[in-house]
Specification:
Length: about 60
């Protein structure tokens, strides 16, 4: 990896799930591993708090993690 950053893991929940779906998995992972489990489009804490204009914008948003 360039820049000396620690490896990362992006966990994406299923259609009816949410970021909390990964809580037990996250607890079992090494503490020095960068882990992100964001809410996907339409699955935010309020049922739709995550916004993106379209699929491509959502992919770009997730790539930032």
């Amino acid at each position: 990896m360039s820049g000396g950053t620690a490896p990362g893991l992006l966990l994406l929940h299923g259609f009816t799930g949410g970021p909390e779906s990964w809580d037990r998995v996250r607890q079992a992972l090494p503490r020095d591993l960068r882990v992100a489990a964001p809410a996907l489009l339409g699955h935010g804490p309020g049922g739709g708090d995550v916004s993106a204009e379209d699929f491509d914008a959502e992919v770009d948003r997730l790539a930032q993690f």
